[in-house]
Amino acid sequence: MPLPGGPIAAPRQIAIFDRGTLLRQLELVYGRRYMFDDEVELGLPQPSLSNEEQFRLDKLRWLADDQRGSLRPLLFGSQAIRDRLAQARLASPNVATVIDLIDRAVALSVMTGTALTVPPILLLGPPGVGKTHASKAIATALGTAIQAISCAANSDAQQLVVGHPTSWRGARMSVVNEALLDSDIAQPVLLLDEIDKFESHRDEQPYNMLLNLLEPENSGAILDEYLRVPFDLSHAIIVATANDADRLPSFIQDRLLMVEIAPPLGADLLGITRRIVADAIAQAGGAIAAPCEEVIARLARAHPRQIKRIVRLALGYAAEAGRCHLIVTDVEAAERLAVGTATRDPIGFLQARG
User: Regarding the domain delimited by 266-339, which CATH topology (the fold level of the hierarchy) does it fall under?
Assistant: First the structure.
């Protein structure tokens, strides 16, 4: 027991959902106490349900029978995490601001012995600057799972945050709650990609629904409308990306820590290109040698999102010619095939020099 007035040890784990409510939901379905494995062994009668309600019951039973229970460990800072963040910073210097932000949170966790706390972050910048890559690099450094959710492809914010009741066609539990259950810790990285592309309709305002996730007072007990069980998402690490912050309502902007990601230029862009090329060559079995700086500079003229595709195609041109190394001609042929730049100005951030 700690001495009166002395420090109280920080909890090492939390309940990510209310197990008592879960069991009460099962009792309501069965009309009696749920008996776990004894349901089969004792041959107990099972409720007769519609397909939709049976799917829900199966989900409730799966959750109740999960050997992990409701508890998940919290994430605590360590020197190993800081070392991995330092490596991520070297690999992607143009996202150093957000990596340094996370590193300071890790340092505070190490000093205080408390769980890692990170405010909801918005990574702001044009396409291809490395916003999504930065999010994945952070999750890898922290050693936690990442769940990427495309807001551009999903305007149903209710499904995203709280799910739909079984009265809805195709109802299912919340996407973010499913991500939380899939994680082995209470603090997965939830990547809300292209949050500025949520579509608002007269009858549905998706950004209002997102407040449940961004407000600490609400995120500690978000009721999943499908399971009718509250979940604790207050420790999840929320990272959103956007191209245009002006498309976001002011009340969403106010709840996100905005970090601008600048396009990689010069040496930074060349370094990112080398990393992309090295990964592509490794995936091809390493049979092709690392390219010279002239080839790297030529590749860096393309958009970072397209460099990997161009490299893969260029490797094919080199193999066709019986060469174990890339030349600029391979890159130019691959670029024409990939993005049709034969008669257009170079794309990306590094322009050709005359």
Answer: Helicase, Ruva Protein; domain 3 (1.10.8)
Residue 151 · residue 212 · CB < 8 Å:
no
Q: Decide if 60 contacts 22 (C-beta within 8 A).
A: yes
- What pLDDT shows up at residue 242? 93
**C-alpha closest to that of 49 among 61, 36, 38:** 61
pLDDT tens per residue across span 174-184: 999 999 999 99
pLDDT of 115-158, one tens digit each? 999 999 999 988 877 888 889 999 999 999 899 988 877 668 88
> In this predicted model, what pLDDT tens digit does every residue of 205-245 receive, in sequence order?
788 888 989 998 899 999 999 999 999 999 999 999 999 99
Of 23-27, 174-178, 279-283, minimum mean pLDDT range:
279-283
What does the domain layout of the chain look like in residue ranges? 79-260, 266-339
Q: How many CB atoms lie within 10 A of CB 272?
A: 23
- CATH number for the domain running over 79-260: 3.40.50.300
